[in-house]
Specification:
Growth Hormone, Chain: A; globular; cell membrane; mainly alpha; single chain; transport
Length: 419
């Protein structure tokens, strides 16, 4: 897999499938236990708000993990970071299954998230290593399409596991999935970052790399455009169990069907996005996604404040908002990483830190401002949608060079020697 020109269509499809399955670890760790949050609170005799904080803790731990493992992936290679991350993910997931208080679960989830970050931060970097900007967007869209299976079935599966084996069985199931992912990584993936392109890992170089990312106007506009969208997504994920299950009386085992509608919309938008790549600039499609998401968020806020439409008045705008992930995710990633081909791991880590940091904050705010209505969730989603639009406006409307893969036979920049 080190030469993209020699990769057959079958090899490319296999790569997409394997990376897509590995990417499922993230949404599964979040979405599988959503229907169980009220049950966990009851089992532990803890307020629901405290259990909601376990989601916020996961997102913040995920952001912290990317800060650490992104540069390590640029220094030591992608697989040397991914494989140990999978091992610790399995261990910390089992630890989560045997917690007895909200605080214990929060700590376990932070450790689980940090381990998972070692896996997730390497996947876009591997794709960037092997493909140019537009191909990178296509591959990431394809991976996202495979990944949509996880959030599509996770709440449904979580609701059934909750009925059959209690909430602890959810984390045991996650650990088993982690074991399967470890086998795939060991036997199906090859290292994508050549030795001569690995970065020296010094404090000075690390700081320089991060500064180069966060001070790059175009890259940050793309990163924050998706980051604030992610904030709205996590406000929904955190608050929706209360809104759907407690406020509107949906049974936990049926919550997954409402959640699945969002994933179907996301998958449909993802397919459309893949077919439009090459016909329209990636930046234009990113702009469309953020604007449509903001309008959906404002509609949701109106419905939540007025009560118009009842449950459907909440579900439909949320579905339209979440569906835009198919336009914001792959395009923002491909655009942002195209500026940093030599430090894709660090650049992706910076994006992940901001994305999951914003998501962790909004998930926490959904719990803090919980008032027995859908208004806090809707206000956070609408606000994040508007911030997403403003962020993308930072990007200058000029063409970006469609950079070649860093491990291609012909380089567009000199190699960076490892320390």
């Amino acid at each position: 897999m080190n030469n993209t020109h020699s990769m057959s269509g079958r090899d490319k499809q296999l790569l997409i499938l394997v990376l897509g399955i590995l990417t499922c670890l993230g949404p599964l760790a979040i979405d599988l236990y959503l229907p169980a949050m009220p049950a966990i609170a009851e089992s532990m005799n803890e307020p629901l708000g405290s259990i909601q904080l376990t989601l916020s803790a996961y997102t913040l731990g995920f952001a912290l993990g990317q800060l650490i493992f992104g540069p390590l992936a640029d220094r030591f290679g992608r697989l040397r970071v991914m494989v140990p991350g999978l091992v610790f993910y399995i261990a910390t997931t089992l630890l989560s299954a045997f917690t007895n208080t909200a605080n214990e679960l929060i700590v376990a989830r932070i450790l689980q998230a940090m381990s998972g970050a070692a896996v997730m931060v390497t996947i876009p970097a591997m794709v960037r290593d092997m493909f140019d900007r537009e191909d990178c967007a296509r591959i990431m869209s394809s991976i996202l399409l495979v990944m949509t299976v996880a959030p599509l079935i996770a709440p449904l599966l979580g609701g059934q596991l909750l009925l059959l084996g209690g909430w602890r069985s959810l984390f045991i199931t996650l650990a088993l999935f982690g074991c399967a992912a470890l086998v795939l990584a060991l036997f199906m993936l090859k290292e994508s970052l050549p030795e001569e392109h690995r970065q020296a890992l010094t404090a000075k170089q690390l700081a320089k790399n991060y500064v180069s990312v966060i001070t790059h106007r175009n890259a940050m506009g793309c990163i924050l455009g998706h980051g604030f969208f992610f904030g709205g997504l996590f406000a929904f994920i955190s608050a929706s169990p209360f809104v759907y299950i407690q406020l509107y009386g949906i049974a936990p085992e049926y919550y997954g069907f409402l959640f699945a509608a969002n994933i179907v919309a996301m998958g449909a938008c993802n397919i459309i996005n893949m077919r439009l790549i090459g016909r329209f600039p990636l930046l234009n499609m990113l702009r469309f996604g953020t604007v449509f998401a903001a309008l959906s968020g404002l509609t949701l806020l109106f419905m939540a404040v007025t009560g118009a439409g009842g449950l459907l008045g909440i579900v439909i705008p949320v579905v339209l908002f979440v569906g835009m992930l198919g336009f914001t995710g792959p395009n923002s990633n491909a655009l942002a990483l195209s500026y940093f081909p030599g430090i894709a791991g660090t650049a992706n880590a910076a994006a992940g830190i901001l994305r999951f940091g914003i998501g962790g904050i909004t998930a926490g705010l959904a719990g803090v401002f919980h008032n027995g209505t859908a208004v806090p969730m809707a206000a956070l989603i609408a606000g994040c949608g508007l911030c997403s639009v403003l962020s993308v406006m930072l990007v200058k409307d000029r063409k970006v060079v469609n950079r070649t893969p860093i491990n291609d036979e012909h380089h567009d920049e000199p190699p960076r020697a490892a320390a």
